[in-house]
Every structure is written in structure tokens, then in C-alpha cells.
Amino acid sequence: MTTSTPEKQDGLKALNDAINVIQTKITSLGGVFNVQMAPKVVTATDEAELAKQMERAELENAEVAGDDDEEEVEGMDGFSGGEDAEDDKKPGNESQEEE
């Protein structure tokens, strides 16, 4: 367990008080407020671990974003080439030909 100085405890209390005020205001206006992780005093080791987790999350998000962009480009031509391609040539589909 990490012992923290009175200054750190005062800072933590001030932060929690501010969160409570913000939560009260948001919920009174009909909003939703969720604390994902309660504030706490961290050590240098905790800080380094958090930095590693953030870096991993960025890499995972970058891969997903790249995958999404590729799919959007492929689907932009508007032609599937499948069974529906023949439907475009049938009578009654003139609006698709005019586009």
C-alpha cells in the first residue's frame, strides 16, 4: 500500500469533490455521468504501466481504423457484380441507369 502525503490526500479530495459537483449538475439536467476509473494517487510504476496500456490501445485502434477505411473504398463503386447486377438491366430499373 502506498502512503500518500497530506497534500496528495487534499488533492484527491478536491478532485473527488469536483467530480461530485459535475455529476450532480449533469444528472440534474437529465444526462448520464459515469466514472470509468475513480481517481487515486499513483506511483511512478503505475504511471509507466498506464503509458504502456495507452500505447497498446492506440496500436489496436490504428489497426481497426485502417481496416474500416479499406472497406469503405471497396464499397464506393456501387457495383456488386453479383446477382443484383442483372437486375439493373431489367425493365423498370430506369432510375438506376440515369444515375
From TrEMBL:
UniProt key word Translocase = no
Q: Which residues lie within the region annotated Disordered? A: 60-99
Annotated keywords: Initiation factor, Protein biosynthesis
Gene Ontology CC: one annotated term: eukaryotic 48S preinitiation complex
Which InterPro entries would you find in this protein's record?
TIF2_asu_C (IPR024055), TIF_2_asu (IPR011488)
Keyword Iron in annotation: no
Task: Output compositional bias ranges, type Acidic residues.
Answer: 65-75
Q: Which GO terms describe its molecular function?
A: ribosome binding; RNA binding; translation initiation factor activity
Positions the record marks as coiled coil are none
Q: What is this protein called?
A: Eukaryotic translation initiation factor 2 subunit 1
